[in-house]
Amino acid sequence: MKVDLYKRPDGHSNHSYLAVPSGKPIPEEATNTDWETELQNEELDANGYELLGVTSEQMQQQITDKGYAISSVQRIES
Question: Where residue 24 falls among pLDDT bands split at 50, 70, 90?
Answer without folding.
Answer: very high
